[in-house]
Amino acid sequence: MTYQYDFDYLVIGGGSGGIATANRAGMHGAKVALIEASDIGGTCVNVGCVPKKVLWNGANLLSNINHLAADYGIDVDVNAVNFSTLVAARQAYIARIHKSYQNGFNNNKVQVINGWASLVDPHTVLVRDAQGKEQTYTAQYITLSPGGKADYPAIPGAEFGNTSDDFFALTTLPKSAVIVGAGYIAVEIAGVLNAFGVETTLLTRGDRPLRWADNDITDELLENFKQQGIKHVGNISYEKVEKLENGLTRLHTNQGTFDSEFLVWAIGRSPNTANLGLDKVGVQVDQQGYILTNELNQTNFEHIFALGDATHAPALTPVAIKTGRLLSERLFNGKQGLHFDRNSLIPTVIFSHPAIGTVGMSEKVALEKYGKFDAQTNPQGIKVYKSKFNAMLNAVTSYPEKIYMKLVVQGTEEKVIGLHGIGFGVDEMIQGFAVAMGIGATKADFDNTVAIHPTGSEEFVTMR
Ligand SMILES: Cc1cc2nc3c(=O)[nH]c(=O)nc-3n(C[C@H](O)[C@H](O)[C@H](O)COP(=O)(O)OP(=O)(O)OC[C@H]3O[C@@H](n4cnc5c(N)ncnc54)[C@H](O)[C@@H]3O)c2cc1C
Ligand SMILES: NC(=O)c1ccc[n+]([C@@H]2O[C@H](COP(=O)([O-])OP(=O)(O)OC[C@H]3O[C@@H](n4cnc5c(N)ncnc54)[C@H](O)[C@@H]3O)[C@@H](O)[C@H]2O)c1
Predict the structure, then answer these.
(1) Which residue numbers belong to the known binding site?
(2) Is this model's pTM higher than 0.95 or not?
């Protein structure tokens, strides 16, 4: 006798990865439910990529008016920044995204269940809704895509600091902000706040932010920080936070105290895997709570899968989406063995001011792997091409912001294994170059490509 499940597929977590895998399964005729405890869309749509990018666009607009308009002969005074107006427009946009998700679920016949899900046995999920009502559902396959949440440091007074979620909850701007951390989120929040006129300080544990990125790129970023007035202090360690009588937050560090209206912890994120019933059922996690999977996204149960930020995959929306879609192609469309390749080339953009785009290896990583090119002694080694120039947007103004670009090429055939840039428009340049690098393009292929003039991206195909 075959067991009848309520669903073919239950997906826990309606963020980037969960939505993608549920929709793709529904498209192939599976009976699917997607369980979400909060707003549909998860981190990216509600407290991540989307609200961040809207604020970044606003910050760029203001910066262009402040720094470029006059030299373009545009006589404009900024009387006020009504941040609450921007936040309202942003939230209205997010509400439209929620609606379009609902249309997608309707088309794909995906049932959305609101509530907190936890496993009670390997095929059964208990959902508790906001009113405390509980219901169980069974499924043949289950995918765990609960995402992550921001970390707080374990120091006294850490609760006086905020996270990126609190940053997105702001409707007015603080006068001053201290951001602790050196990753994407720290750099992006610092750039936005500073561009909106907030006195901004970035404190990093090491000597520079984005230590994994190419050093030349982060040198340029630090140069831009100086020009823009973002204060950066490196090699920081901190002991405690106190709330002062004047309402400010004081962070005590090895390099003195830092007072601000808005202290932000941007020191990393942890998987949202507590209270998911994993221990009860025996789904394996590592010490930090990341769900362990094989390359097919299978946990130690062959019918329970995990993807996205709750696993050790790179914490990027397109990675979660791609993984989710490929998983459903495999489970419900007969595409045997199909899965996200963990060794894929993953292009990424940091929405700093100006943006950073990066694909493939930094010079340092490439040097460690291949060594320096020498026709006689190391023909498999690497060479580097660099260029720094004025973006035409700024060239007719007194604003000093530059574009910096770099190619890392390997071997006598000069295969492009690293492409990095910082400056105006870089965020929109690198997607196509990632396609070329994915199919093994060489420097000669880049050079044989006809440039588009006048653009910034033409520099990538004309470097000497
Ligand atoms: C500030 C910030 C900016 C970012 N910017 C970018 C960017 O520009 N580009 C980019 O590619 N990536 C960006 N990211 C990363 C991106 O948001 C994540 O990689 C992506 O959202 C991960 O998708 P996911 O499906 O794993 O989880 P999430 O999107 O986090 O979704 C998980 C969902 O599961 C729900 N959930 C959790 N547990 C349960 C449960 N037990 N029951 C029911 N529901 C549950 C949560 O409420 C949540 O909605 C950013 C992240 C942050 C924090
Ligand atoms: N533009 C984008 O695509 C984008 C934007 C934001 C976030 N994201 C994704 O979300 C992930 C999480 O972002 P994040 O910035 O929180 O994490 P992160 O892992 O990128 O950076 C965390 C930083 O905090 C530092 N750190 C850790 N512990 C610390 C401590 N105790 N004190 C001081 N510094 C400490 C780390 O050295 C690291 O530089 C990113 O890795 C990225 O994958 C992507």
Answers:
(1) 53, 181-188, 268, 309
(2) yes
